[in-house]
Amino acid sequence: MATEKGTAVKVFTFLSDEILAGEGDVMLPGSEDLSGVVKRYKSGGENRMHTHPTEDHTFYILQGEGTFHLEKGENVVVAGKHEALFLPAGSHYWFESSGADTLVLLRAGSEWGSDRIIEGRPMPGNRIREDAIHVQPRELPF
Description:
Blueprint: H1 17-21, E1 24-28, E2 35-41, E3 45-51, E4 57-63, E5 65-70, E6 75-80, E7 84-87, E8 92-97, E9 103-109, E10 116-118, E11 121-123, E12 133-134
Parallel strand pairs: 1-12
Antiparallel strand pairs: 1-2, 2-9, 3-8, 3-10, 4-7, 4-9, 5-6, 5-8, 10-11
């Protein structure tokens, strides 16, 4: 007799006034192949040049403004609300909040590809951080 399994679909809220007002990372439900993080910075950002050698990812700016330093750092792109940056695997970058509002980004990538290289040193990914908020999906009736 086969056991019936519920759907693997996850429904969740990723943006609210509370999330927009906070700082730090908000981990979204996902899988090893696709994960999302809402990243929030009143100041600062990811301030060290680094690369994810096996992961494409995209930053969608939901609020504020970010200044992105690309490749060797001399290439600068300023992006604001409703703009996005796609970074192919191997792109070198760092960014900082540069507007008056809190910088809120939705970062989409893959869990398995989150390892990075900083200053020539491999660093394991740390997407499942204990200090991050973890969004819980709604329970579905099927």
